[in-house]
Design goal:
This is GLPGLI family protein. The protein has 5 helices and 12 strands. By secondary structure, it is an alpha+beta fold.
Length: about 250
Protein backbone atom coordinates (compact mmCIF):
# COMPACT_ATOMS: atom_id res chain seq x y z
CA UNK A 1 0.00 0.00 0.00
CA UNK A 2 2.82 2.41 0.89
CA UNK A 3 4.41 1.65 -2.47
CA UNK A 4 1.15 2.54 -4.25
CA UNK A 5 0.96 5.88 -2.41
CA UNK A 6 4.60 6.54 -3.27
CA UNK A 7 3.98 5.88 -6.98
CA UNK A 8 0.85 8.06 -6.97
CA UNK A 9 2.84 10.83 -5.31
CA UNK A 10 5.54 10.64 -7.98
CA UNK A 11 2.94 10.79 -10.77
CA UNK A 12 1.26 13.82 -9.21
CA UNK A 13 4.62 15.56 -8.79
CA UNK A 14 5.59 14.96 -12.42
CA UNK A 15 2.18 16.11 -13.62
CA UNK A 16 2.48 19.29 -11.60
CA UNK A 17 5.99 19.91 -12.94
CA UNK A 18 4.94 19.46 -16.55
CA UNK A 19 2.22 22.07 -16.20
CA UNK A 20 4.18 24.46 -13.99
CA UNK A 21 5.27 26.47 -17.00
CA UNK A 22 1.62 26.99 -17.93
CA UNK A 23 0.78 28.32 -14.47
CA UNK A 24 3.38 31.05 -14.04
CA UNK A 25 4.91 33.92 -15.97
CA UNK A 26 8.56 33.76 -16.97
CA UNK A 27 10.30 37.13 -17.01
CA UNK A 28 13.88 36.02 -17.68
CA UNK A 29 15.56 32.97 -19.11
CA UNK A 30 16.92 31.20 -22.17
CA UNK A 31 15.05 29.68 -25.11
CA UNK A 32 16.72 27.10 -27.34
CA UNK A 33 15.55 27.12 -30.97
CA UNK A 34 16.06 24.81 -33.92
CA UNK A 35 15.80 26.25 -37.41
CA UNK A 36 15.07 23.75 -40.19
CA UNK A 37 15.41 24.38 -43.92
CA UNK A 38 14.07 21.84 -46.40
CA UNK A 39 16.97 22.12 -48.84
CA UNK A 40 15.53 19.57 -51.30
CA UNK A 41 12.31 21.56 -51.66
CA UNK A 42 14.20 24.83 -52.09
CA UNK A 43 16.42 23.37 -54.80
CA UNK A 44 13.45 21.89 -56.67
CA UNK A 45 11.98 25.39 -56.87
CA UNK A 46 15.23 26.74 -58.33
CA UNK A 47 15.26 23.97 -60.93
CA UNK A 48 11.87 25.10 -62.25
CA UNK A 49 13.41 28.41 -63.29
CA UNK A 50 16.69 26.96 -64.56
CA UNK A 51 16.30 23.28 -65.53
CA UNK A 52 19.64 22.99 -67.33
CA UNK A 53 21.66 19.74 -67.36
CA UNK A 54 24.28 21.37 -65.11
CA UNK A 55 21.76 22.37 -62.44
CA UNK A 56 20.10 18.94 -62.59
CA UNK A 57 23.47 17.30 -62.01
CA UNK A 58 24.16 19.66 -59.10
CA UNK A 59 20.76 18.85 -57.56
CA UNK A 60 21.24 15.08 -57.87
CA UNK A 61 24.76 15.30 -56.45
CA UNK A 62 23.46 17.38 -53.55
CA UNK A 63 20.71 14.87 -52.77
CA UNK A 64 23.24 12.03 -52.82
CA UNK A 65 25.59 13.72 -50.36
CA UNK A 66 23.58 16.06 -48.13
CA UNK A 67 20.66 15.58 -45.70
CA UNK A 68 17.25 16.95 -46.68
CA UNK A 69 17.02 19.29 -43.70
CA UNK A 70 19.63 21.85 -42.79
CA UNK A 71 19.43 22.38 -39.02
CA UNK A 72 20.69 25.44 -37.17
CA UNK A 73 20.66 25.58 -33.37
CA UNK A 74 20.33 28.94 -31.64
CA UNK A 75 19.46 30.49 -28.31
CA UNK A 76 17.54 33.54 -27.20
CA UNK A 77 18.40 35.08 -23.84
CA UNK A 78 15.86 37.51 -22.40
CA UNK A 79 15.28 39.63 -19.32
CA UNK A 80 13.61 42.93 -18.43
CA UNK A 81 12.82 44.54 -21.81
CA UNK A 82 15.71 43.18 -23.93
CA UNK A 83 16.59 39.96 -25.74
CA UNK A 84 19.61 38.57 -27.61
CA UNK A 85 19.27 35.94 -30.34
CA UNK A 86 22.48 34.03 -31.10
CA UNK A 87 23.00 31.20 -33.65
CA UNK A 88 25.10 28.34 -32.28
CA UNK A 89 25.85 25.89 -35.08
CA UNK A 90 24.68 24.61 -38.46
CA UNK A 91 24.33 20.99 -39.63
CA UNK A 92 24.42 20.53 -43.39
CA UNK A 93 25.10 23.02 -46.16
CA UNK A 94 23.30 24.81 -48.95
CA UNK A 95 25.13 25.40 -52.20
CA UNK A 96 24.43 29.13 -52.56
CA UNK A 97 24.33 30.19 -48.93
CA UNK A 98 27.80 30.27 -47.37
CA UNK A 99 27.48 30.77 -43.63
CA UNK A 100 23.67 30.47 -43.84
CA UNK A 101 23.40 34.23 -43.22
CA UNK A 102 23.39 33.71 -39.46
CA UNK A 103 22.61 36.88 -37.53
CA UNK A 104 23.07 38.03 -33.95
CA UNK A 105 19.97 40.05 -33.06
CA UNK A 106 19.56 42.39 -30.09
CA UNK A 107 16.04 43.68 -29.44
CA UNK A 108 15.08 46.47 -27.06
CA UNK A 109 11.32 46.11 -26.72
CA UNK A 110 10.97 49.27 -24.62
CA UNK A 111 12.73 51.53 -27.12
CA UNK A 112 11.48 49.45 -30.08
CA UNK A 113 14.94 49.31 -31.60
CA UNK A 114 17.19 46.50 -32.78
CA UNK A 115 20.88 45.99 -33.48
CA UNK A 116 21.73 43.16 -35.87
CA UNK A 117 25.20 41.83 -36.62
CA UNK A 118 25.02 40.14 -40.02
CA UNK A 119 27.65 38.63 -42.29
CA UNK A 120 27.19 39.28 -46.03
CA UNK A 121 29.81 37.59 -48.19
CA UNK A 122 33.11 38.85 -46.72
CA UNK A 123 31.76 41.88 -44.86
CA UNK A 124 30.25 42.08 -41.37
CA UNK A 125 27.53 44.70 -41.02
CA UNK A 126 26.07 46.22 -37.85
CA UNK A 127 22.48 47.18 -38.66
CA UNK A 128 20.91 49.62 -36.19
CA UNK A 129 17.30 50.62 -36.76
CA UNK A 130 13.79 50.49 -35.37
CA UNK A 131 12.27 47.06 -34.73
CA UNK A 132 10.66 45.49 -37.79
CA UNK A 133 6.98 46.43 -37.98
CA UNK A 134 4.82 43.41 -38.77
CA UNK A 135 1.03 43.58 -39.18
CA UNK A 136 0.01 40.39 -37.40
CA UNK A 137 -3.48 38.92 -37.69
CA UNK A 138 -4.56 36.82 -34.71
CA UNK A 139 -6.33 33.48 -35.07
CA UNK A 140 -7.99 31.14 -32.57
CA UNK A 141 -5.69 28.22 -33.41
CA UNK A 142 -3.44 27.00 -30.60
CA UNK A 143 -0.73 24.41 -30.11
CA UNK A 144 1.77 23.42 -27.44
CA UNK A 145 5.44 24.21 -28.04
CA UNK A 146 8.17 23.35 -25.51
CA UNK A 147 5.51 22.94 -22.82
CA UNK A 148 3.71 26.23 -23.49
CA UNK A 149 0.26 26.83 -24.92
CA UNK A 150 0.78 29.10 -27.93
CA UNK A 151 -1.64 31.04 -30.10
CA UNK A 152 -1.27 31.42 -33.86
CA UNK A 153 -0.86 34.70 -35.73
CA UNK A 154 -0.28 35.23 -39.47
CA UNK A 155 1.41 37.99 -41.43
CA UNK A 156 2.96 38.94 -44.76
CA UNK A 157 6.42 40.53 -44.81
CA UNK A 158 8.60 41.89 -47.61
CA UNK A 159 5.42 42.25 -49.73
CA UNK A 160 4.97 38.52 -50.42
CA UNK A 161 6.50 36.32 -47.69
CA UNK A 162 3.75 34.51 -45.73
CA UNK A 163 4.61 34.04 -42.05
CA UNK A 164 2.97 31.84 -39.41
CA UNK A 165 3.90 32.46 -35.77
CA UNK A 166 2.93 30.84 -32.47
CA UNK A 167 3.41 32.93 -29.34
CA UNK A 168 2.87 32.46 -25.62
CA UNK A 169 1.63 35.08 -23.17
CA UNK A 170 3.41 33.23 -20.37
CA UNK A 171 6.57 34.99 -21.57
CA UNK A 172 5.31 38.52 -22.05
CA UNK A 173 8.39 40.01 -23.70
CA UNK A 174 7.46 40.82 -27.31
CA UNK A 175 10.33 39.08 -29.07
CA UNK A 176 11.23 35.92 -30.95
CA UNK A 177 13.78 34.21 -33.20
CA UNK A 178 15.81 36.30 -35.67
CA UNK A 179 14.13 39.71 -36.13
CA UNK A 180 10.54 38.51 -35.67
CA UNK A 181 8.62 40.25 -32.89
CA UNK A 182 5.61 42.47 -32.31
CA UNK A 183 3.17 40.01 -30.72
CA UNK A 184 1.80 40.21 -27.14
CA UNK A 185 4.23 37.55 -25.96
CA UNK A 186 7.26 35.50 -26.95
CA UNK A 187 7.27 33.72 -30.32
CA UNK A 188 8.14 30.05 -29.76
CA UNK A 189 7.24 28.75 -33.21
CA UNK A 190 7.67 30.36 -36.61
CA UNK A 191 7.24 29.12 -40.17
CA UNK A 192 7.69 30.48 -43.68
CA UNK A 193 5.64 27.73 -45.37
CA UNK A 194 6.32 28.69 -48.99
CA UNK A 195 10.05 29.08 -48.30
CA UNK A 196 10.26 25.73 -46.43
CA UNK A 197 11.83 27.28 -43.32
CA UNK A 198 10.79 26.84 -39.67
CA UNK A 199 12.02 27.88 -36.23
CA UNK A 200 10.72 26.05 -33.16
CA UNK A 201 11.68 26.27 -29.51
CA UNK A 202 12.97 22.98 -28.15
CA UNK A 203 13.50 24.09 -24.55
CA UNK A 204 12.65 27.06 -22.34
CA UNK A 205 14.69 27.53 -19.18
CA UNK A 206 13.65 30.11 -16.58
CA UNK A 207 16.70 31.78 -15.03
CA UNK A 208 17.18 34.70 -12.64
CA UNK A 209 17.88 37.98 -14.44
CA UNK A 210 21.10 38.31 -12.44
CA UNK A 211 22.46 35.20 -14.18
CA UNK A 212 21.79 36.47 -17.70
CA UNK A 213 24.23 38.75 -19.50
CA UNK A 214 22.83 40.55 -22.54
CA UNK A 215 25.07 42.87 -24.53
CA UNK A 216 24.23 44.29 -27.94
CA UNK A 217 26.64 43.29 -30.74
CA UNK A 218 29.15 46.00 -31.65
CA UNK A 219 31.28 44.51 -34.43
CA UNK A 220 30.71 45.49 -38.05
CA UNK A 221 30.19 48.30 -40.53
CA UNK A 222 27.41 50.60 -39.23
CA UNK A 223 24.38 50.80 -41.50
CA UNK A 224 20.56 51.05 -41.44
CA UNK A 225 18.06 48.52 -42.78
CA UNK A 226 17.45 50.65 -45.87
CA UNK A 227 21.16 51.03 -46.50
CA UNK A 228 21.79 47.31 -46.08
CA UNK A 229 19.02 46.48 -48.55
CA UNK A 230 20.65 48.74 -51.15
CA UNK A 231 24.00 46.98 -50.63
CA UNK A 232 22.36 43.56 -51.08
CA UNK A 233 20.45 44.52 -54.24
CA UNK A 234 23.49 46.14 -55.87
CA UNK A 235 25.76 43.21 -55.02
CA UNK A 236 23.34 40.57 -56.31
CA UNK A 237 22.88 42.08 -59.76
CA UNK A 238 23.46 39.33 -62.27
CA UNK A 239 22.67 36.45 -59.92
CA UNK A 240 19.68 35.51 -62.07
CA UNK A 241 17.36 32.81 -60.69
CA UNK A 242 19.24 32.68 -57.38
CA UNK A 243 18.67 36.36 -56.57
CA UNK A 244 15.21 36.02 -54.85
CA UNK A 245 16.48 33.31 -52.47
CA UNK A 246 19.59 35.30 -51.63
CA UNK A 247 17.52 38.43 -50.95
CA UNK A 248 15.26 36.45 -48.63
CA UNK A 249 18.12 34.86 -46.72
CA UNK A 250 19.97 38.11 -46.10
CA UNK A 251 17.02 40.45 -45.51
CA UNK A 252 15.01 38.33 -43.04
Amino acid sequence: MKLQYFIIGIILFLSHSSFAQEDSLITSGTIEFEKKIDSYAQMRKRLKGNPSPATLRAYNEYRDNQPQFLKVQSKLDFKDHVSLFTPLNAQGTLIIDPGQSQSIVFNDCFRKTSIVQKQFLETTFLISDSTRQIRWKMTNETRHIAGFLCRRANAVIMDSIYVVAFFTVKIQLSSGPESFAGLPGMILGLALPHENITWFATRVTARPASQISITAPSKGKPITNAGFKIVIIETLKGWGAFKPEMLLQFLL
